[in-house]
Amino acid sequence: MEQSRLVIVMAHYNNPKGLEESITSIDEQINVDVIVVDDGSNSKPNEQLLNQIYKLGQIHFEYLDQNSGVGIAANLGLALALKKGYELIGRFDCGDLFMKDKCLKQLNYLDKNKDVKLLGTWANVIDNHGEFLHELKHPTDYESIKKKMYLNSMFLNPSVIFYSEIINTVGNYPLKYKRASQDYAFFFKVIKKFKSENYPEVLMDYISDPNSISTKKRRLQVFNRIRVIFDNFYFGLYPIYGLIRNTALLFVSRSFTTAIKKRFKLS
């Protein structure tokens, strides 16, 4: 099978079932290759099974000797994607699910809008029991994204597809924000150099997992988000409001904010 234009990079840690479910959900009319980087798991990916069930492209497996964090695992995947010459790179997290033709719709949009170099999508937020919580609908236009990035990330990391060439300019996921918010810092670097948008359609199910980094290390994530805002700060309404808002979030649980979003159908 010929190499695809697009490769999906996935970091895996002790979740072979979630990995299988996610890869199985890729349902496209185009070929899509996958890179799985195992982050020092005790429960390794079942390579034989995954190669049997996935027919849309090649799966490449890489293994870290010890658990090093999702940022290091993701960067290894990006480096492999560049080495293999993929034009486009997508991200995906174990347990999340793509909807039919998600990647095709994004690639078609990118082909028609050559100035856009990174494209995310909207998503349904689902709990780990399969219950719908709320929709996640980030702004679609570049100008709004640049302003509101100071409040929170305006991209859902496992939804994005971007041109691999941008890594040569902005670099990989910054590891100075250890164990949390590397994607937020990465997206800040991207939007400063390249036009970036969100596709205005719900194209994936994002699992709000109580064991995820955004839940278990929420205070660290919010603290690092504040650091990212400071690193990109200028005196303006959105940066100042973003600092105030995220400082307040240090004292509020994620379960509370999720309940508010569910109650008022907020993004």
Fold blueprint:
Blueprint: E1 6-12, H1 16-25, E2 33-39, H2 47-53, E3 59-64, H3 70-83, E4 88-93, E5 97-98, H4 102-112, E6 116-127, E7 132-136, H5 142-148, E8 161-163, H6 167-170, H7 182-193, E9 195-208, H8 213-216, H9 218-231, H10 237-249, H11 254-264
Parallel strand pairs: 1-2, 1-4, 2-3, 6-9
Antiparallel strand pairs: 4-8, 5-9, 6-7, 6-8
Which range does the strand content fall in?
15-25%
Count of helical regions? 11
Largest sheet: 9 strands, mixed
Q: Give the helix level as a range of percent.
A: 40-55%
Number of domains: 2
Helix vs. strand class: alpha/beta
User: Roughly how many Å is the radius of gyration?
Assistant: 18 Å
**Cα distance spanning the termini:** 40 Å
The outline comes out as globular
Mean pLDDT: 92
Reading the helices and strands in chain order gives EHEHEHEEHEEHEHHEHHHH
Which residues sit in consecutive blocks of at least 5 with pLDDT less than 50? none
Could you give the count of β-strands? 9
EC number: 2.4.-.-
GO molecular function, one term: glycosyltransferase activity
InterPro entries: Glyco_trans_2-like, Glycosyltransf_2, Nucleotide-diphossugar_trans
Protein name: Glycosyltransferase
